[in-house]
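Dear Dr. V.,

Thank you for agreeing to look over these. As mentioned in my earlier message, I'm a first-year student in the group and I'm still getting used to reading structure tokens, so any feedback on how I've presented them would be very welcome. I ran two proteins. I've put each sequence directly above its structure. The first is here:
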Amino acid sequence: MPTNNWNTSLYDQKHAFVFEYGKSLISLLDPQPGESILDLGCGTGHLTNTIAGSGASVVGLDSSQDFCRQMRQISLYLPPSTRYSPTQHCTGLLKLKRPYAVSLRP
């Protein structure tokens, strides 16, 4: 399996427009407390954490271990009441154990 290495700092600096643009779509998504949302290809987790702030139960998945580590660091600063599953590294077949109301992908 090929390695998927990313420079998370460089990504956040040069590609912030990706999650900044996505923030404008959150009002359309209208996440609700307790709603299950899956963010596939969540990158460094900025948008995933914004969605988690709504009270929705969010799971972020990415194929980059570097992105996953960065997202776990970012999630440490969320309020304790936020229901959120830190991202997981996923490179193969994805088997979900529960249904999701919404799934996001790049």
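The second protein is here, in the same arrangement:
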Amino acid sequence: MKRLSLFLFLLIASYNILVAKSRDLTVLQMNVWQEGTRVKGGFDAIADEIARLHPDIVMLCEIRYYNGRKFILRLQKALEERGVTYNAVDHKGGDSNTTLTKPLMRF
């Protein structure tokens, strides 16, 4: 997982250099504490905060797919409803980690 995270970081950083944009790369890492299921309105709060900050890369941990629901797909849809588009990468494991990235290019 560290390799994939590093690869994503380098890929996005390289893209910004290649297109000669003078822009900072922003990263948000959150421990979402059991997908926000233990706090009333937790899921919406997670989506609201990502939409508010609008970072280039979002890394989330403590994703366990409670009740068989894919958290990353729900979050991706919730962000789209808030007008924010992210690509999702799901790193499966015991305490799954999830990475969202802004699209690098639009065709």
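From my reading of the second output: The chain has one domain: 2-19+26-101. Residues 40 and 57 are 26 Å apart (CA to CA). Does that match how you would interpret it?

Kind regards,
E.
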